[in-house]
Structure formats: C-alpha cells, structure tokens
Design a protein that fits this description.
Elements (H helix, E strand, L loop, with lengths): L49 H17 L3 H25 L4 H11 L2 E11 L2 E10 L5 E6 L6 E7 L7 H13 L4 H8 L4 E7 L8 E7 L5 E7 L5 E3 L5
Antiparallel strand pairs: 1-2, 1-5, 2-3, 3-4, 5-6, 6-7, 7-8
Helix pairs in contact: 1-2, 3-5
C-alpha cells in the first residue's frame, strides 16, 4: 500500500562494513527516502543503468514512430521486454535477504504488524521497503531494510495530513491485525512460485481477504498470486491477466 508521506522521524542509518557488493542490473523510479546507502548497488555490465537504456529506447521509439515503421516498433517492444525481464531477474538475484526475512527485521526494529514489503530502487541501490502498522493500530511506519545484509537502513513515520486515507488505513490495519496469515507467512507460502519481490494487502475489494504477492522467476518473468488472509491458500491473481 503506497500513500503520500511526510517524514516525521528518521532512524540513524546503519553503515554496512566489509566486502564489495556485487553489481546487478536495476531499474525503476528513484524516490526520496530516509534510508542509508544499500550494500547492493546495481548496474548492468557496461556500467549504464537500465533507466539510461530505457531513455535510449524511448528516443529510438520516437524515431521509429516518425517513420511509421510498425515492424521496427515491434522489434523495439520486444527488446524492451527482454530488458525488463533481465532487470527483474537481476533485482531478484540481488536480494540475498528474502521478503519474509526483511519483514522479520523490520518488525524487530518497529513492533507491530507488517502491511507490505516491496523490493525497490532507492537512489541506485536495492532496498526492501516494509510498511508496518504500530501496536497502537494507527501509526504507520516505513522501514528500509538492506537486501544484502538484513540491516535496518532507516525508517520514518507516514502521515495522512489531509485525512483522505484514514478510513482505508483503519480498514486495512484491522484486517491485518485479525488475519491468521501474516505478511511474512504469505511471502513464505508463495515462495515456491519464485523469488518474492512484493507482498501487499489486496484492498481493492470491499472486504480485505487476501495478500497480493509478486514473484519473479529465474528468467525474469513476473507472476502475481493471492494468498488468503485466513487459510494461506495460494491462487493465481487473475486480475493481472
């Protein structure tokens, strides 16, 4: 679950010592974060980020559209798709700390109930961003975990200053608190389907009944699953078909 945030508190960044992080491919949008530098800094083999290559793809696409060359457009789309899959595979490979482990680390630092965990790009490095509802059931925390070491990089409190998300937040918090299957358990349940890169509450329906889990296979193919909040049953998420 993603919401607009205002940083209220920042935990001291944990510096990672020893060794040099292996470089893996990475893309995605950079977002401001309170996190310290991740030990997993990720680039492709020739030193360019996937964002740079995506920009080149976009330029090429513009030229091709100008020439109205449908076949070249199709080839470009296929090349982008291959690049996306390579990026996905590299991100999943770069995360030595699993989703379930990152959730456990976040909850150790910030007690409560985990609502989501996402493997994200943070200024050129991978981080697990774990949302936690505090024990009071009202305070939402974002905790950043290093996917290479499991260390807490930072955290902040999320605030809904305009009150737009208050009702939804309360509904989700209540559902997670009463669930028989936690976010960490949902990640483990779907772990046999591939490397888990995201766990989130399915709050699109009137009743919160499942976790949405995203997995990535070795070749970079992404799949989406529903894990029942009460039974832990894993089913294919057909809404992404």
């Amino acid at each position: 679950m993603k919401r607009n945030i205002v940083i209220a508190t920042i935990a001291a960044a944990a510096r990672v010592s020893g060794g040099t992080a292996t470089a893996f491919a990475l893309g995605g949008d950079d977002e401001p974060s309170a996190a310290g530098k991740s030990s997993v800094q990720v680039k492709d083999d020739d030193g360019r980020t996937f964002d740079d290559r995506d920009d080149a793809y976009d330029d090429d696409r513009d030229d091709q559209d100008d020439r109205n060359d449908a076949r070249e457009d199709a080839r470009e789309d296929a090349r982008e798709a291959r690049g996306d899959k390579a990026e996905n595979a590299a991100e999943a490979k770069g995360a030595k700390v699993s989703a379930a482990e990152s959730i456990a680390a976040a909850l150790k630092a910030t007690p409560g109930a985990a609502v989501s965990a996402d493997l994200d790009d943070d200024n050129g490095g991978l981080v697990w961003d774990v949302d936690v509802v505090g024990k009071d059931g009202r305070t939402w925390h974002s905790v950043q975990i290093d996917p290479g070491t499991g260390k807490v990089l930072g955290s902040h409190v999320e605030r809904d200053d305009d009150g737009d998300d208050t009702a939804e937040d309360a509904r989700v918090a209540a559902a997670v608190k009463s669930a028989s299957v936690s976010a960490g358990e949902a990640a483990k349940a779907a772990g046999g389907k591939g490397a888990v890169t995201s766990v989130d509450v399915d709050d699109d329906a009137a009743r919160v009944g499942s976790w949405n889990v995203e997995t990535t296979s070795a070749d970079g193919t992404e799949s989406h699953w529903n894990v029942d909040l009460n039974t832990g049953k894993v089913t294919v998420d057909r809404t992404d078909d």
